[in-house]
Amino acid sequence: MFKSGKEKRKSQSFNRMIPNILTMLALCAGLTSLRFGMEGKWEAAVASIIIAGVLDALDGRIARLIRGTSKFGAELDSLSDFLAFGIAPAVLLFLWTMKEAGPIGWVLVLLFAVCCALRLARFNTDMDSQHLPVWTKSFFTGVPAPAGGGLALLPIIISFQVENELIRNPQLVGILIVVISALMVSKIPTYSFKKIVIPRSMTKFLLFGMVLFFGALLVYTFKVLAISSLIYLCLIPISYFH
After folding, report:
1. pLDDT digits (tens, 9 = 90+) for 118-144
2. How many CB atoms are located within 10 Å of the residue 115 CB?
3. Taking a C-beta distance cutoff of 8 angstroms, is the pair 84, 56 a contact?
């Protein structure tokens, strides 16, 4: 049977809510990571932030696909990103090792959270700007917040595979925090993979590679994440020269 106009409007309204629902789930995943961190369950805490990252990647794409983008959704997404990729990694790093550095450790995790907020604020203002460089169509300006949050957690991820106290050294972790914070607020072009055009002839190879990657991610989750993070770091100077 055909739906009435009123029923169609209700259906469309619910469809437009899907991206916001995913964003709220990402927000909940970020909050849950804080709970796991306070309980010392580091693998579960990192996994929660990974889930938040997956949901964050989906909400924007689905919103554009169903033409459900809105100013409200954009603001909600930024708030969710700040919590999941700014506050949560900062608190986890502080509880994991930076508290051993005393007040300096707290200042460094504060620096990371503030730089994440600045990165998101710049991203929001750039969306309405008409005077951006041409390269911004294919690149991000600086490291995006989800990538920054993942890179900051790299020492914790590596510690799941390597038993070495050096990885937990507050001085080394502090240096990484400063570097990632600087990359987020920098104007260095970084690859925006969602805008890469794949030739039709390469589609089957891409699909095969994605299946292989996600299969490995399910089996060797933290190893794959560590390697992926290191590869991303190596791509930053390449994207700059590109």
Report:
1. 999 888 787 666 666 666 677 888 899
2. 25
3. yes
What residue has token string 């991820």?
157
pLDDT category at 149 given cuts 50, 70, 90 is very high
Amino acid residing at 72? F
The crossing angle, in degrees rounded to 10, of helices 88-96 and 145-152 is: 10
Identity of the highest mean pLDDT range in 92-96, 124-128, 161-165, 197-201: 92-96
DSSP label at residue 186:
S
With a cut of 60, say whether residue 235 has pLDDT above it. Answer: yes
Among residues 204, 159, 152, the alpha carbon closest in space to that of 180 is found at 152
- Distance, in Å, from the CA atom of 173 to the CA atom of 158, rounded to the nearest integer, reads 12
pLDDT at position 163 over 60? yes
DSSP string, 133-167: -GGGGTEEES--HHHHHHHHTHHHHHHTT---GGG
State the Cα–Cα distance between residues 91 and 36, nearest whole angstrom. 11
Report the phi/psi class of residue 197: left, alpha or beta, with left for phi > 0 and alpha for psi in -120 to 50: beta
d(Cα 30, Cα 48) in Å, to the nearest integer?
6
More confident position, 81 or 59: 81
Report the relative pairing of strands 189-191 and 139-141 from DSSP bridges. Answer: antiparallel
CA distance linking residue 115 with residue 184, whole number of Å: 7
Neighbours of 205 (CB within 10 A): 11
Q: How long, in residues, is the chain?
A: 242
